[in-house]
Amino acid sequence: MTTKTVATQAAYAFVGYYFVEQSQQLLLGKKLQTGDRPVEILWDWRRVSERGFEVKLGVNVEAAKEIPERLNVVLVGRFSCVGPGTTSESEEFASINAVAILLPYVREALSSLSGRGPFGAYVLQPINVVEMAKSFDLKRATAARRLPQQKKKAITSGRTR
Fold first, then answer.
1. Per-residue pLDDT tens over the stretch 92-110
2. Rama region for 9: left / alpha / beta (φ>0; ψ in -120 to 50; rest)
3. Are strands 52-61 and 39-47 parallel, antiparallel or unpaired?
4. Could you tell me if 98 and 77 are in contact, meaning their C-beta atoms sit under 8 angstroms apart?
């Protein structure tokens, strides 16, 4: 039996996305490892306005002896805070929810890009975003590095936030 429920509005809006990089490199004749193709996830986020922020998500798929093809996709998603008091919770949203929102776009780009090559489409397997987010270094994120500078600038200019 299907249960009906009312969808609740999130405190954030997905404004859109754009690709920073999409590349496919064939490594024919190179010495490569046999076996699985290692996948590396890259993540960062930054504030672009008082209520807006961007999340960068990149996926690198390394080549293997059986499939000598390296794939790289980097995508930036734009989000805004639409609810009151949500700016302080943006870090958690950026590291978990935004990544879950952006992953299908990255997955499709990898599949489409590799599907044009000689080895067929690569399908990025499901990822446990909550577990992956635990490995993100939030202190090294662009937003974390810029925050002390923004506060210092606001104090020296006489503004407070």
1. 889 999 999 999 999 999 9
2. beta
3. antiparallel
4. yes
Give 14-42 pLDDT, tens digit per residue: 999 999 999 999 988 888 778 889 999 99
pTM of the model: 0.81
Q: Classify burial at 86, counting beta carbons within 10 Å of its beta carbon; exposed 0-12, middle 13-18, buried 19 or more.
A: middle
Distance CA 66, CA 27 (A): 11
Contact in structure between 44 and 57 (CB atoms under 8 Å): no
Condensed to tens digits (0 to 9), the pLDDT of residues 32-72 reads 778 889 999 999 999 999 889 999 999 999 999 899 999 99
Residue 72 host element (H or E): strand 69-81
Residue identified by tokens 């960068």 is 56
Region 106-118: what's the mean pLDDT?
95
Domains, the chain, with CATH or none: 12-141 (3.10.420.10)
CB under 8 Å to 154, separation ≥6 — which residues?
160, 161
